[in-house]
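Practice problem: predict the structure.
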Amino acid sequence: MDEDGPGVSRKRAFYAMLPFLFLGIADVLLLLEWGLDPLWGFMILPPILFVSVLAWIAFRGGLARNQTGEPN
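Answer:
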């Protein structure tokens, strides 16, 4: 994959963000399975999606990389 900057490719950023999204969706499903009002699931879903998008941006933009200056 060609990397044109300090960030990560979109595909790799998506795969790095995917566990966060899966945990959030599993949390919503668990709440619904416990019998809570479905409105609660929809209330916590936007923050989960927001954090997932922030994680994607962080991985894609290079914010989540080694910044100590040490070579790999």
